Amino acid sequence: MIERALTPALMAMCLIVLFLACLLGSTPLPVDRVLAALFGGADAADRLVIWSIRLPRALAAFLVGAALGLSGAALQGLLRNPLAEPGVLGVSASSSLFATFALYYGLVALNPWVLPIAAILGALAATALLALAAVRTRSVVTLILIGVGISSFAAALMSLMMNMAPNPFSLTEMVNWMLGSVANRSFIEIGFAAPFMLAGAAILLLTRRGLSALTLGEEAASGVGLTLRNQRIFTVIGAGLATGASVALAGAIGFVGIVAPHVIRPFVKHDPARSLIPSALLAGLLLMLADIFVRIIPSQTELKLGVVAALIGAPAFVWIAMQRRVAYD
Amino acid sequence: MTSLRASNLSVHVGEKRLVDAASFEIKPGDLTILLGPNGAGKTSLLRAALGLQKTATGTSELDGDSVFDMAPAKRAKHIAYLPQIRPLAWPNRVRDVVSLGRYAHGAAVGKLGPDDARAVDRALSVCDLNQMADRAADTLSGGELARMHFARALAAEAPLLIADEPTAALDPRHQFRILDLIQSYVQDGGGALLVLHDIELAARYATQLIWMKAGRIVSQGSVEETLTQDRLAEVYDISAEVQGTRISMKGAL
User: Fold this and answer.
1) Do B89 and A269 touch (CB under 8 A)?
2) Inter-chain contact A224–B76, Cβ cutoff 8 Å?
3) For the segment A56-107, what is each residue's pLDDT rounded down to a tens digit?
4) Which of A51, B71, B119, B198 yields a CA-CA distance of 20 to 30 A from B79?
5) Half-sphere exposure (CA, 13 Å, Cβ side) for A132?
6) Do B76 and A274 touch (CB under 8 A)?
């Protein structure tokens, strides 16, 4: 019963929070003015605030969260481990490294598609490496350690670039990228990331049935008829596209992909396939809420969304890791 | 009538020959049990015959079609495969795990079509799992888990079954229960190949025995023909007295 109501309830909550994000801000707007602005009425200033600032920002937070939640849930299903997540596995770090590289060398100025494509290539490089490692090792702990390695290496290269940054401006730019934020995003930037997110989401959703089969372990999953190699390739590409696109839009934001599926799993009877859509919605919801929080708390410089996500997500990661029983490895 | 015919299968890993030119056939009505000491290559042989392990030589054919070229989903509709039981990745519901047996038929867990639902319900009641169908699998005892996995294989409604140590770590009563279930599956027209470590239990249930040692099949045939004192010495290096299907073991040779 709860399971059937889960997805519609989350959708409704997402819409409510999206609306809330339009209401709240440095200058709160009353409900009637927001509604008027949303539906084409109201004065130009209100419309500008809603359509150019608040709505795209909230939508960007939702899309980034949803892409990360979906990728996290799918990677957890593939690797059969609740700690697998784009951030932990180094996918986000590798992706933001490639994106920063493109920014640093001015490649981004050539074509607006360069940034999302660089970020996606970075994400795919990391996921492909992980998938290769997954063929060689059966241990998921090893995989996570490889992810930690990828993450550290990407961070080291990032530090190297910061070290050699020509001016404080590009330094700030890079820091923004590493911390993760959806401030000042417009529908144009969303438009460049969304197609990749949708493609990644479509791949993950179309191949989700195999994730249920993987519950049995790889041997038994191929026994019931799963083509393991294809499942690995599709999940890796899908998660790479979705994560890369979210990094292109917001930089590296960690841990949403762990927390959301963890909360959702008991509601869907721990079936990985059924956890994908609710995990995406919940992660989108959480990131929208975190972004509203970032906007309304009074502070000198605005907090970065990625910082808030990590402040909540990292302790949750430790807690989930400590809850785990050895038996599942 | 579906049958699986493996001929001249060899599996090499590096220099080591895990399986050396092994041939066998499984067909409906046969309950074949594969016996042999640890490291004899029993699991490798099963995996090779299913196309899950790279082979150096040989073929494996399902009604004349090569299993190696077959899509896993097509193979799974004809052969249900139960590998050695591993813990599940998540604490799924028993019914959902059994539903995974319908994977090759296109069933999605939690959203079963009428045919799939009927097969799952039937498997649950045959294996006496109805009361625990909605429980999480991690709350089950060893015997219940073994029945759940067997129910998953049964739900596939495949004509053939290959099971690797389906009675491992079970007490005698649960071993009998699983083997009774497999025996009635065979009596209903299925064909099964099992790996077992209990020779006496194997002799009681098998219609055919395959004896394996150091990668080679050293003998295959009926229990009466192949279960002898000399064979136990040759294959297992144990000294034992054999009277019909009764074995009294004396110790290692």
Assistant:
1) no
2) yes
3) 999 999 999 999 999 999 999 998 888 888 888 889 999 999 988 888 777 7
4) B198
5) 7
6) no
Name which of B42, B35, B30 is nearest B3 in CA terms.
B30
In angstroms, the CA A150 to CA A87 distance is: 10
Q: Which residue has the tokens 């084409």?
A: A40
Nearest CB neighbour to A269, from listed B83, B92, B152: B92
- The predicted complex's ipTM stands at 0.90
Q: How far apart are CA A288 and CA A59, in angstroms?
A: 8
Torsion angle (degrees, nearest 10) of CA B105, B110, B113, B114? 120
Q: How far apart are CA A253 and CA A149, in angstroms?
A: 18
Q: What are A226-242's pLDDT values in tens digits?
A: 998 889 889 989 999 99
Chain B nearest CA to A5, separation (Å): 14
Q: Pick from A112, A21, A225, A276: which is nearest to B100 by CA?
A: A225
Locate B17 and state its tokens. 């020959």
> Least CB-CB distance to A273: which of B50, B80, B109?
B109
Write the CA distances from A216 to A189, A244, A272, B101, B117, integer angstroms: 41, 29, 12, 10, 20
Contact yes or no for B87 and A273 at CB 8 A: no
Q: How far is CA B5 from CA A32, B2, B65, B195, B216, in A?
A: 75, 10, 10, 17, 17
φ, ψ dihedrals at B136, nearest 5°? -75, 140
Contacts of B89 in chain A (CB under 8 A): 80-81, 214-217, 328
The C-alpha atoms of residue B73 and residue B105 are separated, in whole angstroms, by 8
